[in-house]
Design goal:
Blueprint lengths: L5 E4 L4 E2 L5 E2 L3 E7 L9 E5 L8 H4 L16 E5 L31 H14 L5 E7 L1 H12 L4 E7 L7 H15 L13 H15 L2 H8 L11 H16 L2 H12 L10 H5 L5 E7 L7 H10 L4 E5 L7 H4 L1 H16 L1
Parallel strand pairs: 5-6, 5-7, 7-8, 8-9, 9-10
Antiparallel strand pairs: 1-4, 2-3, 4-6
Helix pairs in contact: 2-3, 4-5, 4-8, 5-7
Protein name: Homoserine O-acetyltransferase
GO biological process, one term: methionine biosynthetic process
Pathway: Amino-acid biosynthesis; L-methionine biosynthesis via de novo pathway; O-acetyl-L-homoserine from L-homoserine: step 1/1
């Protein structure tokens, strides 16, 4: 299977929820496995903030040969979101009419805009029904929004470490990261590597919300009790920031963090409870005990108001990142959910 994504160009301009228009939209996506003759084996993966369409890479252990979602059994679809930098239209994409990229002028995208592009791709792929849509964090926000919009489309909905509305806490973390990027004077230069130092700092901020106090105590406590500088925790923050700079860009990071802030399934729908009541998919909601960014109370709310939803909680050391790391626990929870669902 190739790691190179397919590219689908929307047949017409995309009018965004804000009223702005993207005249040309490409969506990068990958598929794995084969569609059954009955077309009833589709699993659609919605990815988180800085991921891409190659789900077998970033969700290894849950997706892949011998994993719970094995391409031998499932037809797996994962699309890179608009606003990203992995093949879909984003801030660094060159407008064919002007020959220029938008950079910091890229328009505001909402989660509903991301879902609109998923829906256009689904129609292009001629998939009348999706067995399971799954996502964590920003991916879960997309999945729940899509299930609200199209209740008859999905048989199963799996939501991990996500919410019905992005919290004030989450927005504050995102704004702190954006302030770090905007404080980098190269961000305003509108160049492909603009804002790189700011992005490194932003990632260091984000890590504090992705992990937990206990996780840092276990893995980053300085072993040299006489040290006065160059602490293990400090080098870890710098290293993780540099890793993101090497594979992502500041303009997409700003754009997609703003997208996450817009998430609110109740907007224009008489509130969250009424919106979630529209969902008809069999739903599994998974929380993580140590998640400080999307605490379990947010997943419990989803399960409370989605009709018939099942709630499960993972005991994990890894905080919010547990939804990417704890694949054995997730697989076990999925197995129990599907056995109960189809018993």
């Amino acid at each position: 299977m190739s790691d190179e994504p397919h590219i689908f160009r929307l047949p017409c301009a995309l009018r965004l929820e804000s009223g702005a228009v993207l005249p040309q939209v490409d969506i990068a996506y990958q598929t794995y496995g084969h569609l059954a003759p009955t077309r009833n084996n589709v699993v659609w993966v919605c990815h988180a903030l800085t991921a891409n369409a190659n789900v077998l890479d970033w969700w290894a252990g849950l997706f892949g040969t011998g994993c719970y979602f094995d391409p031998a059994d499932w037809f797996i679809v994962c699309a890179n979101v608009v606003g990203s930098c992995y093949g879909s239209t984003g801030p660094l994409s060159v407008d064919e009419t002007t020959g220029l990229a938008a950079y910091q002028e890229f328009p505001l995208l909402t989660v509903r805009d991301l879902v609109a592009v998923h829906e256009a791709l689904r129609e292009h792929l001629a998939l009348p029904r999706i067995h399971t849509v799954i996502g964590g964090s920003l991916g879960g926000q997309q999945a729940v929004e899509w299930a609200v919009q199209r209740p008859a489309l999905f048989e199963n909905l799996v939501l991990l470490a996500t919410n019905a509305r992005h919290s004030a806490w989450g927005i504050a973390f995102n704004e702190a990261q954006r302030l770090a990027i905007l404080a980098d004077p190269t961000y305003a230069a509108a160049a492909p590597d603009g804002g790189a130092a700011g992005l490194q700092a932003a990632r260091a901020v984000a890590l504090l919300s992705y992990r937990s106090y206990d996780a840092y105590q276990r893995t980053q406590t300085e072993p040299d009790e006489e040290a006065l500088h160059d602490y293990r925790a400090s080098s870890y923050q710098r290293y993780q920031g540099s890793k993101l700079v090497a594979r992502f860009n500041a303009y997409s990071y700003v754009a997609l963090s703003r997208t996450m802030d817009t998430h609110h399934v109740g907007r224009g729908r008489n509130g969250i409870r009424a919106a979630l009541a529209r969902i008809r998919a069999r739903t599994l909601v998974i929380g993580i005990t140590s998640d400080v960014l999307f605490p379990p109370a947010e997943q419990q709310l989803l399960a409370r108001y989605i009709p018939g939803a099942v709630y499960a909680e993972m005991d994990s050391q890894f905080g919010h990142d547990g939804f990417l790391i704890e694949t054995a626990q997730i697989s076990h929870t999925l197995e129990r959910f599907y056995v109960q669902t189809y018993a």
